[in-house]
Every structure is written in structure tokens, then in C-alpha cells.
């Protein structure tokens, strides 16, 4: 059966119009990430049901007598709850100041059936001294203080769907504050939060993450935080500002689809014209 160019045009236009609609409806919400002395990631995002988010922050602080620097890498992902890595990006930045705080994954994934996976690891290397404020007093580090899993996991069972280490942990002014007032709403899938490491008086770092999040019911929360402080001999790394970024995803499909559809349309019209000439 012969098809006219107009018929082929209408069919291809319909294809171009229909495909982008499905793409737009599955695009994840963009989140603002800030890499600085007070680094942030994934706060107040993805509060529609069935979404998932991942934030992974790795910090290496260099502490010197005159100040210091930091290397910060942030990996951030968004997507459906079952496939949160649909859209990921990774960014590494060299800062001219050490990181003092990381705040991420708070007030997020509150739409129900969501998944939240966030982690922070901060290593502070002290050059020419110790992690204490006064090197003469020795390495004044102590076990990290923790405030976590307070008012969370309302429908869960400790040791089964609630696995917090340490637990209970309710400390005012803690270095690590996470997973508080989260994972409520019923039918808890899992709440796993861990905090490890040491604190140093020579450079205070605080972590606030996964608080007031995943309260829509049927949620999964996995968050971890670690603070490590060490005394290092040798020369500190350079402090020149460098920023690199990458995406774990392929190029956007929409322009490609439009291009292919346009090319297909032109070919279809040419073929239709040739057929009409040789009838």
C-alpha cells in the first residue's frame, strides 16, 4: 500500500512529539551542589513519591600552621527509587581552605516509597603538628560524638529494619548529626546509619545529613559518616584551585531523537517522491 508524503510526515511528527514526552516525565529533579568550606549536596530535593537520591562526599583536608586546603569530591545521583543512578555527576575541587562542615540529604525524599543513600568521609591530615590545638599536648583526638536516629523509623524494629550504630545516640552539639526525624510514615523498608572516627580540637568538622528525610512511608535510608584525623610528616600538597567534573550518563537523547526523526522525515519524503515519479 502506497503512502503519501503528507501521511509519512504526520506519522513521523507524531513520533517526535510522543517520545520527548516520556523523556521529560522521567528526568530527575536537579539539585544544587556546593563544594566549599561548607559543602552541601542534595538538600530539599526529590520530594515526589517513588524517587531515589545518592550523595557521596569525600574530603581530604590539609591542615597547616597557616591554614590549609582541601580536596573535595562529590558524586550525586537522582532517579527512580529502584534506579537512583539514572542521572549521576562527579565533581572534584581543590579548595584553598579546609572543609569545616558537610550538610547533605536533609529534607529530601519525602514523597513515599523513596530511597536515600548518602555518605561522608572526611580525612584531616595535620602537617607539622598534631590534631590538637597545641602540638605540645600531643594528639588530642577523641571518639567522635554522635546524634543520630532520634525520632526515626516509627514503624521499624531495632536490630531488624532499624540498624543504627551507635544507638541510641542523643548528644547535644555532636560532630555527626544524622538520620534524625527520618524514615517515618509506615512500612519501613530499612534505616541503616553508621558513624565512626575521631574528633580533633585542632580543626573541628561537623556533618549534618539525612535529617527530616524519607518520611513518606515505605522508605529506605542508608547513611554513613566518618571523621579521621592524622598527623603527617612531609610537605603539604599544593593549594592551587582546580575543578574537574564528569557525568556518568550518556548524552541527552532528545536532540538525537529530533535529529534522527528529521533525517528520517527527509528520507521518507524523497522516497515517496521517487515512487510517485515511477508509477
In words, what does this structure look like?
This protein has 279 residues and is of the alpha/beta class. The protein folds into two domains: 1-30 and 254-279; 32-248, no CATH class. It is built from two helices and 14 strands. It has helices at residues 5-26, 253-277; strands spanning 38-41, 51-64, 67-80, 83-95, 101-104, 115-127, 141-143, 146-148, 162-165, 176-178, 190-200, 206-209, 220-232, 243-247. Strands 2, 3, 4, 6, 7, 9, 11, 13 and 14 form a nine-stranded mixed sheet that branches. The longest helix has 25 residues, at 253-277. It is flat and about 50 Å long. The model is unreliable at 5-30, 134-139 and 250-279 (pLDDT under 50).
